[in-house]
Amino acid sequence: MTESNTPFDHRPDTRLGAALREALAAPGDRAVFVARVLAGAARQPAHPVEHLLARWAVRGIVAAAAAAFVAGLVIGRGRASTEPSVSDPDPGAMIADVQAEPNMLLVTATGR
Amino acid sequence: MDLASDGRGVVKMATEPQRPTGDARNPQEVEDASLVARARSGDREAFGVLVDRYADQARRVARAVLQDPDDADDAAQDAFLAALVKLEQYDSARPFGPWLMRIVANAATDRRRRRKVRTAVSLDEGLVAGGARPDVVAEREVLLGRLRVALAELPERRRMAVVLFDVEGYSHAEIAKVLGIPEGTVRSEVFHARRKLRALLADWRDDG
Fold first, then answer.
1. Residue B195 pLDDT exceeds 80
2. Mean pLDDT throughout B26-39?
3. What is the per-residue pLDDT across B40-96, written as a single tens digit (0 to 9) for each?
């Protein structure tokens, strides 16, 4: 026996350990227990691929949502930059307005 | 009793995994890692070896939490099946035993929380001190019954700590990881558990 009489001992107490081991020993058949576990395992997917696919599916959905969000932002910004705004008049249109005035005068002078 | 010593004074069942004696992984741990790798790739036979190897340990740890042997077996089974699903998460550079025992402890604790409070600890009540049958059972069985009662009266964490340390031979550091508590707390829990349980062993010594 190597156990010490003090609970401070850092080594396992072989006497106490053996007693507890006996006290906690399962009354049921060990082989039956192992067979039960293996039967339960057999009902689970034989290969963890299914679990991996399930995990990847979640990741894929998250990635797709993020990609759609980013694409939406890019497209939205692109449209916003090409649309004319009220505060930014088109210079070409302004020139066209100025050039139209002589034509109108000509039409008036010729009576057409 | 089918017991053997690992040279560190730890009494082990001959068929069970041997505990590491240092920081380096022992052959048992290397073999465990290999079995886990095979089990990960779908090898049910390898998983069966792991179950067979750790069955007794898992059942004892579960019983330390639940007391009732049937509940303990159910929890141990839950733990093995959960471990099978979680094998991808296992770091093969670390020992398999503490990783598995953490799952066992969690499964047992979850089951205890779920089940309804029972009227009494499921023990052979006649074996408990003051029971009706001590005159017809061996004195050793009476002591075992008392030990179970004393163990059941300990706080759950204390119970697990002393079982993992003195029965299963895990180090304080490993138990700290299993239970998710500081190493100093593990030492304290083992100390308090021993102080109570050793009092019962005085009779045991007289007996043996």
1. yes
2. 90
3. 988 989 999 999 999 999 999 999 999 899 999 999 999 999 999 999 999 988 999
Domain ranges of chain B: 1-121
| A11 vs A60: which has the higher pLDDT | A11
Percent of chain B clearing pLDDT 70 (strictly above): 75
- Please state the three-class secondary structure of chain B as a single string: CCEEECCCCCEEECCCCCCCCCCCCCHHHHHHHHHHHHHHCCCHHHHHHHHHHHHHHHHHHHHHHHCCHHHHHHHHHHHHHHHHHHHHHCCCCCCHHHHHHHHHHHHHHHHHHHCCCCCCCCCCHHHCCCCCCCCCCCHHHHHHHHHHHHHHHCCHHHHHHHHHHHHCCCCHHHHHHHHCCCHHHHHHHHHHHHHHHHHHHHHHHHHC
Distance from CA of B97 to the nearest CA of A (A): 17
Say yes or no for a CB contact (<8 Å) between B44 and A12. Answer: no
Domain ranges of chain A: 1-44, 48-112
Report the mean per-residue pLDDT for chain A: 71
The ipTM assigned to this model is 0.73
Considering CB atoms only, which of A26, A30, A41 is closest to B84?
Answer: A41
Would the CB atoms of A41 and B52 count as touching at under 8 Å?
Answer: no
Cα(B66)–Cα(B68) distance, integer angstroms:
5
Domain at B1-121: CATH code: 1.10.1740.10
- Among A67-76, B11-20, B142-151, the range scoring the smallest mean pLDDT is B11-20
